[in-house]
Amino acid sequence: MNAYIVGVLVPLVVTVLLRNAKNSKKRGLLADVGGEPGYAIRNHRFTSPVQTAWEGISTLAELFEHSCEQYRDKYLLGTRELISREVEVTEDGRSFEKLHLGDYEWLTYGRAFEAVCNFASGLAQLGHRKEERAAIFADTREEWFIALQGCFRRNVTVVTIYASLGEEALCHSLNETEVTTVICGCKELKKLIEISEQLDTVKRVICMDDEIPSNASYVEQSKSWTITSFGDVESLGRENPVDADLPLPADIAVIMYTSGSTGLPKGVMMTHANVLATVSAVMTIVPGLGSKDIYMAYLPMAHILELAAENVMAAVGSAIGYGSPLTLTDTSSKIKKGTKGDATVLLPTLMTAVPAILDRVRDGVLKKVNAKGGLAKKFFDVAYTRRLSAVNGSWFGAFGPEKAIWNFLVFKKVRAILGGRIRFVLSGGAPLSGDTQRFINICLGAPIGQGYGLTETSAGATFSEVDDTSVGRVGAPLPCSFIKLIDWPEGGYLTSDSPMPRGEIVVGGPNVTVGYFKNEEKTKELYKVDERGMRWYYTGDIGQFHADGCLEIIDRKIDIVKLQHGEYVSLGKVEAALLVSPYVDNIMLHANPFHSYCVALLVASQHTVEDWASKQGIPFTDFADLCEKAETKKELLASIQKEAKRAQLQKFEIPIKIKVLSEPWTPESGLVTAAFKIKREIIRKAFSEELSELYAS
């Protein structure tokens, strides 16, 4: 009996006590703040917001130079060698580009600093003055980072533009900011040439690729543009060095254009001090950041999440290896069959992800498991159930040895998809479902730090700590921020609500940006400075604080629609619940104030739906044909209604009719942002006939 107590019960009691201690840990504390009355929380370790983690460093330019001096001979920037491009033609005649990529080729911190200094000097030699703005319009890559830091060394404000941005938004961004120099890739240069007649101020284009389109000479003559390769700019600067003209903390580092989910994008002005505050805060949250880490960079650097993450990595001596969502894994769509994806070659330890990417990883794993079927599927299900029980606090699989066994026998293969060495994943950009968070956490064996922030807060607001095993929350305030909830009576959210205070989320701190470029009206509406000089941003998101000081996002003011009989429907909340269905690749709920019910546009998951149809013996010519069949609509509607009931949605929140769509929504199609958030108004216009039919039928 004594041996049993010592060997089994004691570890169990210790495990339960430790888990309860973690769950009861105060992660955020009440704060005394100024401004509009509300319920304010600060980080439990810092009484006032952090501005910099490095003594004597107050700008991103200073921070980068400091890192390059400290880590001079360590690897910083890595890019894969392109061995070949091939075109693969499918049976139905469609062609796809496939890449054969080799090993990573690296620049050390010392060499990267030389490249940055050379680019900065070359930019000045081309005639770009510091009071002029430069735009970076390209996919995430090594040259993007070098160009950014090069501009910082000349105190040039960088306008960041998504590579997937449409013509109208692209023209708007470049003309509004009066950009004179655009730094882009060959693909983006082709877009610029097409809209050259609509661009008012562009004088110079620096192409990151050696290949320059043949029709570039047309704009060089007709618009008097100077088009130069990135390499030539570096060479020009190397031969004609120019002294640095470093910025001050209050200087505008970046005008970052939002992805335009609610219309034309707005340019958010962020200072060096703003971004440095977020970088400094994240330093205190992610455990053990340092020169042994390798970071997988593949999200758009025009998104503040990726831009901040790469600056964090460079600050601590980590290596940054570049890839793309289409080449990330061995089975990614642009990887030549039989060759390796980015993660397999890089073996990263850290990565950031948006929920849409993590959802795809989960769906990809489940697809493989279900395809194998039989004993392999049962074995996976048992392993997953045991690990889930352990994470949720039951005694099944709670002990280290069993965890190690399941990881070795089952989850090792899953981890290999992303290289097998991931130790921490940061998820941001949108709410991550609890199911996906648990799945990725168990299968990768690494904690997922779910964060909340906006472009307007330099990505900083809240972040979940590494020992917080809860799901559905976004953590406590980052050390750079105060988070305050204020009453929103119209929506029924009050800080006096029980059991948790609820309200609109307001973020205050040195990370809160200056405002919107050339949009004083919107800036005054959403930004406020209190009597103590603290700057606050009114997010429009609705949150609630848990007892331990962690925030949960529960709604969004802009997404709430009032139905015919007075019920309020939160579109985003319902969509998050319905996305859990395995049949759903994407979904947009639509509520019309003149009707008493909701409908939905549902983008079907091709593999799952085709697999279901095959098992049911339903004949179809192609996927579009299958999506039109009555049996398919019935099955998919039943599936999302089941998930709606499981999420305890009200009857009026659950769509009663759906339109099943076969074509995915991608950033290239303009229907979702680069972070895969749906562009509600654009989708509504694009599918206005389908929505009208749903209400009419």
UniProtKB/TrEMBL annotation:
An example Gene Ontology CC term for this record: endoplasmic reticulum
Keywords assigned by UniProt, alphabetized: ATP-binding, Ligase, Nucleotide-binding, Signal
Signal sequence bounds: 1-15
Molecular functions (GO terms): ATP binding; long-chain fatty acid-CoA ligase activity
All residue ranges annotated as the AMP-dependent synthetase/ligase domain in the record: 98-517
Reaction catalysed by this enzyme: a long-chain fatty acid + ATP + CoA = a long-chain fatty acyl-CoA + AMP + diphosphate
Similarity annotation: Belongs to the ATP-dependent AMP-binding enzyme family.
Protein name: AMP-dependent synthetase/ligase domain-containing protein
